[in-house]
Design brief:
heterodimer; A: 90 residues; mainly alpha; 66% helix; B: 518 residues; alpha/beta; Spore Coat Polysaccharide Biosynthesis Protein SpsA, Chain A; 2 domains; ten-stranded mixed β-sheet; elongated
Chain lengths: 90, 518
């Protein structure tokens, strides 16, 4: 197949039409997104990727400094109480 | 009227299996279950009827009970319902008032003491994928009136799970994936089952002109659509005539990309539109003209680099039924790649199709995108020989987005959605485009049966510009956060399909526990 050679002016008009259509779709998508954000957060927020809360990045909390006294207390309480806490936490 | 009617084909089921199922139903979260054990021996039925269930489960042996139930659960013999899963089912139906079929995740025994269960996390509704294998699993929850419009309940009960799923989804209007555990499976095998006969019959019912082949090793069914017409394709290749070392020798990338199209492709109803930046060497353009002859058109591009604009310019400078966006650093591997992709457009709901792209060392460059939530090429840099979890790398399936390095698009759809957005000059114009296509009501389909090389650097990481993230998010934030073809229980910021462990929950649990103690 061979398509005819187009006048650059015609091509530019077609590209302008594409830009218009894109703007319409962008508007539609943004409106939908804003509705969802309002339903979820009650306001429109600027989007950024959420923090990674998957396994690999969250295991460190156990070793964080604020856990030290908690860990210390847990390790030094009577064993039956420790077992009870363990049982309750699972 | 009872809330749930659980239907099991109990022919050949052992009493142990039935007892295990009964136990699971007692703790499944509903106090009003009728259990139709179709085909069970009378002694087994009596035994089950005598079992203590806090009056939650009534065992019945005839299908008449179906008329007095609201929801029907098809449960395979030996499998159980996951603890409290019907609570989630009820909640899902409440949230989606128009839903008439629900499927969910499943847990499978591993036989390993340290990690006793493995989880199958399923993507959202993907009709193309269901034709390949029963990815929705074997437990389906359906509204009773939908069952009545499909077939008799006993006929459905004894059918192969793949056949049953296809028949029910054909009549269902709103199919919902519940990203929660629904089934406690008996089998350790997490791979979806596939039935060639079921798919062939489905294609006949849906008037899909195709031949079906079973790949028993995977297992999956390949639906090879027949090429009934030969639509014209315009191949748009943006380039600046760069050279690079590929397979140990220096080559001009665009020349070899175009040469492979003309020499290797079995589908020849195409023309090539090369959109060349001003610095493209004249010798390269001359060689391209030699290869392509009258079927090759060169468009000069003298503006600052904008990938989206270059593609739009190429697409608007020619006439064709389909548009193939093709990077200059590609090469055809499977000679019928174009044919396979073109044939997908027999289905008028398909808007864009993408093949599997491989790096120079034949590892996967792109097998469709996932939003996790950062748009990522699924299983990048892994072997294309691997089937992936639930065989997802071996089957045609819907995806949220495809890479524009090679994507075949219907021209009317391209024009309808406004082509690639020029506001994304380098990154994510393909993602934005595919999401626009889906917003317009068309599907984006990935096929693993067409292979091309994409000689992109393996170590290249696209620069992330926060302004572009915000712009993409302003349009598609919810889709990025919850990709319908992903699963919220999978690990984020990775390119593999891996269940997230419970550590996230354990932090929440630990904090709530500390608050309780305090």
């Amino acid at each position: 197949m061979v398509s005819p050679a187009f006048d650059p002016v015609v091509v530019q008009k077609k590209i302008d039409a594409l830009v218009e259509r894109d703007a319409e779709f962008a508007k539609m998508a943004r409106a939908r997104e804003e509705q969802r954000q309002i339903a979820r957060f009650g306001e429109i927020r600027e989007y950024s990727f959420p923090p990674n809360t998957s396994q690999v990045h969250v295991t460190n909390w156990v070793h964080s400094s604020w856990m030290r006294p908690v860990r210390f207390i847990y390790r030094n309480i009577p064993r039956p109480l420790r077992r009870l806490i363990k049982k309750l936490s699972i | 009227m009872s809330e749930f009617l659980v239907v099991t084909d109990a022919q050949g089921a052992t009493l142990d299996d039935l007892v295990t199922m009964h136990k699971s139903l007692v703790v499944s979260g509903s106090k009003d279950i009728k259990w139709l054990v179709y085909g069970a021996v009378p002694d087994a039925v009596k035994h089950l009827q005598r079992r203590w269930s806090f009056r939650r489960v009534r065992v019945v042996a005839t299908a008449d009970e179906f008329k007095t139930s609201e929801l029907v659960v098809f449960l395979n013999s030996g499998d159980g319902l996951y603890r409290e899963s019907l609570v989630n089912v009820r909640e899902t139906f409440r949230k989606n008032a128009t839903a008439d079929l629900i499927y969910g995740d499943s847990a499978h025994p591993t036989g390993i003491k340290a990690e006793p269960l493995s989880f199958v996390r399923r993507p959202g509704w993907s009709p193309e994928r269901l034709r390949a294998h029963c990815y929705v699993g074997e437990t389906l929850v359906v509204r009773a009136d939908l069952v009545a419009s499909a077939e008799t309940i006993t006929d459905l009960a004894v059918r192969h799970p793949h056949d049953r799923a296809l028949r029910l989804t054909e009549v269902a209007k709103n199919i919902v994936r519940m990203p929660e555990l629904l089934t406690m499976a008996k089998s350790q095998d997490t791979r979806p089952s596939a039935s060639l006969t079921a798919v062939a019959e489905h294609c006949a019912r849906q008037k899909i002109d195709a031949t079906c082949e079973l790949d028993a090793a995977v297992p999956s069914v390949r639906v090879k659509r027949k090429l009934t017409t030969e639509p014209s394709v315009a191949v748009i290749v943006p380039t600046r005539g760069t050279s690079a070392e590929v397979f140990g020798s220096e080559r001009v990338l665009v020349v070899e990309a175009v040469r492979s199209l003309f020499e290797k492709s079995t589908y020849q109803n195409f023309e090539v539109v090369v959109v060349a930046d001003t610095p493209t060497p004249q010798s390269v353009l001359d060689t391209l003209r030699e290869i392509g002859g009258a079927r090759l058109k060169i468009i000069d591009y003298d503006r600052p680099f904008n990938f989206a604009e270059k593609n739009n310019l190429g697409a608007m400078s020619c006439e064709s039924d389909l548009i193939l966006l093709l990077n200059d650093d590609t090469e055809i591997i499977t000679s019928d790649a174009l044919e396979i992709m073109v044939a997908m457009f027999n289905d008028p709901t398909v808007g864009v199709v993408g093949p599997m792209l491989l790096f120079e060392d034949s590892t996967i460059q792109s097998a469709g995108h996932i939003f996790s939530p950062d748009p990522t090429d699924l299983y990048r840099a892994r072997s294309p020989e691997m089937a992936g979890p639930q065989n997802l790398l071996k089957v045609q399936r819907e995806v949220s987005s495809l890479i524009a390095a090679c994507a075949l698009i219907r021209r009317d759809v391209f024009e309808q959605v406004g082509g690639l957005c020029m506001g994304f000059p380098g990154n994510w114009n393909d993602i934005d485009f595919c999401l626009k296509v889906q917003l317009a009501g068309y599907r984006a389909v990935f096929t693993p049966h067409a292979h091309l090389f994409h000689f992109e650097s393996k170590t290249r990481i696209a620069k992330r510009v926060e302004a572009e993230v915000a712009k993409l998010g302003a349009r598609w934030g919810s889709v990025l956060d919850d990709d319908p073809y992903f699963n919220p229980n999978l690990q984020r910021y990775t390119n593999i399909w891996k269940t997230d462990s419970t550590s996230k929950q354990s932090l929440d649990e630990a904090l709530s526990f500390l608050l309780t103690v305090a």
